[in-house]
Amino acid sequence: MINYNFLSPVDDLILSHMNLNSSLILGNRINIFSDVSSPPDLANIDVAIIGVNEYRNDKNPLDENFSLNEIRKTFYNLYPGNWSLNIADLGDLILGENVSDTYQAMQSIISVLLKNNIIPVIIGGTQDLTYANYRSYDYLEKTVNIVNIDSNFDLGDSSKPIKNNSFLGKIILDKPHNLFNYSVLGYQTYFNSQEEIDLMEKLYFEPYRLGELNNNIQNAEPILRDANIVTLDLKSIRSSELSSKQKFSPNGFDGKEICAISRYAGISNKVSSFGIYEYLPSIEDEATEMLIAQIMWYFIEGVSCRIVDNNFHKVEDFQKFTVLVDNQELVFLKSVKSSRWWVEIPFVQNSNNKLDDHSLLPCMHEDYIDATKGVIPERWFKAQKKNII
Fold this sequence. Notes:
Layout: E1 7-8, H1 12-19, E2 30-32, E3 47-52, H2 69-76, E4 87-93, H3 99-115, E5 119-124, H4 129-135, E6 144-149, H5 167-173, E7 179-187, H6 194-202, E8 206-209, H7 210-215, H8 221-225, E9 229-233, H9 255-267, E10 273-277, H10 286-304, E11 318-325, E12 328-335, E13 341-345, E14 359-363, H11 365-372, H12 378-388
Parallel strand pairs: 2-4, 3-4, 3-5, 5-10, 6-7, 6-9, 7-8, 9-10
Antiparallel strand pairs: 1-4, 11-12, 12-13, 13-14
């Protein structure tokens, strides 16, 4: 059961504004927590929105109180797609006396949602909240993959208190050690030290430069297909797409690319939580509010398009291709339903494998083509190394 004592209802002004618009808008299809005396019934809910206005761990302390009202107002006024999903808005998390208290409350709520197969969509707040999101998976006692859409790695100095630019260090070091893979989509080299880049490679993590994805945004799909947690820093978006206070860098993803990434995250059968962080409201904020609303819309659109295409127990559901590269047998599987590809990560006998027998790594058709030319996919190599470390 959700403890609604941790949550504050959605503002009545938003509901009043929504009532002035068409009855067909998205807001009228959302189960909104608007009255403490009658919290929403989460039975049959597929996606739950939670606002977390926690900024106290910003590396540059902020003295302002932020509201997510305008984002909600904009999101509610969009029209839904051809969805059969049930969506709830649980309002905003009430901040704790300390940031650690906020973490605990957030972890508690997300854990309940995950146990009920409800996908939380978190609107923040600083990106260190990803740590609380990650700790929500502890009850599963399984490895967790995080994909961070960001211009920075957010490794930071793990010996110092956690900040919004250093949460990964805490995730890596704190027990229980559930992190298997960490990928960064859209990093920009000049925002990351060479030492951090070297550490990412040493840990066999997966950093993808902005230019690599700008050239072909479809390269992000298999990475997101393998994620449990997707965390999106708005600083990954180029400044021309955002309102004045949100501007960070002239380089970054454009609106079309970030929405495509969000849809890929939604389509992934494995993604079970999605967070949008580092929102900084300003007076003229329509561009940022609309983009965040559209990011949420595309994620939910992706969830509505999910198909079970990774169940390879029936021979008629997939095609199998075996390639021998440097005395290493690579087994590729292609789904008949979706035409998406996977490659097997071998189970190493007499070794402490982190993954289950015959674990599958999402890949692309191009990886199979490269293998036929004698090139082992780099993601496969890194996954195999992490599996037996």
